[in-house]
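pasting Branched-chain amino acid ABC transporter permease for the record, 343 residues
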Amino acid sequence: MDAILLQILNGLDKGSAYALIALGLTLIFGTLGVVNFAHGALFMLGAFCAVTLNKIFQFSYETIDPVRKDFLGNPLKVETPYVYDWFGADAGAAMIEWSVPLSILFAIPVMILIGLTMERGLIKYFYKRPHADQILVTFGLAIVLQEIIKYFYGANPIPTPAPQALTGSADIGAAIGFDAGSIIYPYWRLVYFLFATVIIGGVFAFLRYTTFGMVVRAGMADRETVGLLGINIDKRFTIMFAIAACVAGLAGVMYTPINSPNYHMGMDFLVLSFVVVVVGGMGSLGGAVAAGFLLGVLESFASMGEIVALLPGINQIIIYLVAIIILLTRPRGLMGRKGVMEE
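structre below
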């Protein structure tokens, strides 16, 4: 039982990333009808927002420490971050240590601006074009973005650690009545799952309980009728694109301590996230989230040593295998809507 619970936790961890990215993809497709293959790049850009802020906090200047000596007896040169001077040594050190959570505040305006620029500068010209054209142009945009990141940050992963207070592991087994040490799980992965739950809940609450969200949902169901009521639905859909970009970016920010950011991490998640969207049902927000967590848990169980020994390679294909089975039995996915991408 403890092994099963551990795999469920691992699955919820992976599923959180899948669900957040798939949620943003579905928001864009459901509102604008655009198949956005650049969405994985937005996840990557969010991760590099955390990298950038961490580097900004660590900008430093060189000083001479008369007390400390090198091996030749000369005064030691030390690097002093500028934030130590601006905010004090204690506050500056805390800002560097907690740079990943603080990156949320940095990433929100950056990702909203990137989302608005993408939609107004490129995506709006492909609303009425075939889905194949949308895929080609957004995939090309994704390649351009990752090459830009590669140019400025290099090809190697950049470690961006979690705060020291959250780098340990929780004894979940002892907390729920199992033997102490039977289920040990990293704090930051639990934080990521809780963060994903809050973001997903916030998006659904925004769409369900605010006037803006109700209009957007109405526009998703019948865009022409909403437009005839004198509502500028295009403007609201542009804002939803920015929100979807922000969701993907925040998912990337908080994922940096789990997987060190690199320029191709967006592509690594993109294909899996599209599989999640298709399994959940094109245009279904609830389906995208449910499929994200479901496939994350299944992938985790398929990675168990006993399963891999019995079925070698099953952990590499389980998501695609499940997708085939579901689409054969439910062609619209788990919660797909009639008429979506069926023309």
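Residues 2-32 form the longest helix (31 residues).
Residues 2-329 form a domain with the ABC transporter involved in vitamin B12 uptake, BtuC fold (CATH 1.10.3470).
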